[in-house]
UniProtKB/TrEMBL annotation:
Keywords: ATP-binding, Nucleotide-binding, Transport
Biased composition (Pro residues): 359-370
Source superkingdom: Bacteria
Name assigned to this protein: ABC transporter ATP-binding protein
Lineage of the organism: Bacteria, Bacillati, Actinomycetota, Actinomycetes, Pseudonocardiales
Compositional bias ranges of the Basic and acidic residues kind: 371-390
InterPro entries: AAA+_ATPase, ABC_transporter-like_ATP-bd, ABC_transporter-like_CS, P-loop_NTPase
Region span, Disordered: 330-404
Compositionally biased residues, Low complexity: 344-358
KW ATP-binding (keyword) present: yes
Native species: Saccharopolyspora rosea
Length: 404
């Protein structure tokens, strides 16, 4: 199972420019989380901070008990071995064929022999559907194939945390859909902790277990997908429903045509009302995602603390067996309450035999509390400046000292 990433009170500035402040969230082990936000809100800076390439001024990033913001270079180097990163452009070497590109981290950072390298590379190429393309150069293949090659390269060192920097950038909707399915399938196979940075509403609505959103120097929310997908927080609602009306200005987001097309896909064709699209499942023949059961236990344990609309959506996804297991009765029509409950739905403790089957649970990544109506949220002030994204990223600079 992947490892938990705990971020506490993280703040990052460049000179006088505050990128974000006081970011607190937990990426639960093995789950898929998505980080959203308009351009320039510091999503890439956040990814770089997680692997210790950038040093936030305040706060902690704790992985396996190590705070990577303050640990020694040696410890940081060890922790980085846990990460795999899919770069926006795949970051492939143009003069190397796909096999050599994917083999590169193994040759650079391990002492594996060529036959073992071949075995690992072909295994990962098979996982991403690239068998047969070993001899191709990056310039000879499509953008989608380049992404998959970049993903195979991110997988060769068997990472426990995978960061995806805008995996859908430059892909058409069909290729994005294939890549999203591949991400879910990979999660089912390797059970690593995934964090995806994206602008794509379809990806945000169908792939993750948890969603977070950065806006105007703050983490507006982070929590289970149902919480954000039913949120009435203006910036979250606007972003996730692709609406033009709202706090996010055009200078901060995509063009109107793209937003309208995405919105049309997401609305009920008869009522025009946005609805929650079911989360993607792993393809037939693959194991069920272990994270699904873990997440359900975690979310059901804290159900009573969530917004009623999120509670409704979560309860809707339960099978009859799960309803029995979590002691959820039939819903009273129109009341939003369940029989015997006067307040929000609260999951009952599981019977002892069920508790024994549930692995130890991490602390819940609590949704950022919604501000009271009389409080103006910090992200409601001013506008972000827009600056070009830092281009190519190199995350690992040195040789690994041992085999993995
Ligand atoms: N090394 C750096 N030095 C100074 N400023 C930087 C550095 N890296 C990033 N920035 C600034 O941080 C801000 C956030 O950049 P970042 O690339 O993280 O945004 P983003 O949310 O990922 O954007 P996009 O969605 O367009 O990729 C930008 O204003 C950028 O210019």
């Amino acid at each position: 199972m992947g490892v938990e990433v705990v971020v506490e009170g993280l703040s990052k500035s460049f000179g006088p420019q505050t990128i974000w402040r006081d970011v607190t969230l937990t990426l639960p082990p093995g789950e898929i989380s998505v980080l959203l936000g308009p351009s320039g809100t510091g999503k890439s800076v956040f990814l770089k901070s997680l692997v210790g390439l950038l040093k936030p001024e305040q706060g902690r990033v704790v992985i396996n008990g190590v705070d990577i913001c303050t640990c020694s270079e040696h410890k940081l180097y060890e922790i980085r071995k846990l990460f795999g990163v899919l770069f926006q452009d795949g970051a492939l070497f143009g003069s190397m064929n796909l096999f050599d590109n994917i083999a590169f981290p193994l040759r650079e950072h391990t002492r594996k022999g060529e036959s073992e390298i071949r075995r690992v590379v072909l295994e990962k190429m098979e996982m991403v559907g690239l068998i047969g393309a070993e001899e191709k150069l990056p310039g000879e293949i499509s953008g989608g194939m380049r992404k998959r090659a970049g993903l195979a390269r991110a997988l060769v060192l068997d990472p426990e945390i995978i960061l995806f920097d805008e995996p859908d950038s430059g892909l058409d909707p069909v290729r994005t859909a294939y890549l999203n399915q591949l991400i879910v399938d990979l999660n089912a196979q390797i059970d690593a902790t995934f964090l995806i940075v994206t602008h794509d509403i379809g990806t945000a609505r169908t792939v993750p277990d948890n969603i977070g959103m950065l806006f105007r120097r703050n983490l507006v929310m982070f929590g289970p997908r149902e919480v954000l997908l039913t949120s009435t927080e203006p910036v979250v609602e606007q972003f996730l429903n692709g609406r033009r009306q709202g706090p996010i200005g055009m200078s901060e987001e995509k063009d109107a045509g793209q937003a309208a097309a995405e919105l049309a896909e997401l609305r009920d064709s008869e009522t025009g009302v946005p609805h929650i699209i079911p989360q993607l499942e792993a393809s037939a023949g693959l194991p069920l995602r272990a994270a699904v059961r873990r997440r359900k236990d975690r979310v059901m344990r804290d159900l009573g603390s969530l917004d009623p609309s999120a509670q409704q959506e979560i309860v809707k996804t339960l099978t009859p067996d799960e309803r029995a297991r979590y002691r959820i009765g039939a819903q009273e029509p129109g009341t939003g309450a369940w029989p015997g409950q006067t307040g929000p739905v609260a999951a009952q403790p599981m019977p002892p035999q069920d508790v024994a089957q549930v692995p130890p649970q991490p602390p819940r990544p609590s949704p950022t509390p919604r501000p009271r109506q009389d409080q103006r949220p910090p992200w409601a002030e001013g506008h972000e400046s827009e600056e070009p994204v830092a281009a190519r990223r190199r995350w690992f600079g040195r040789k690994r000292d041992g085999d993995r």
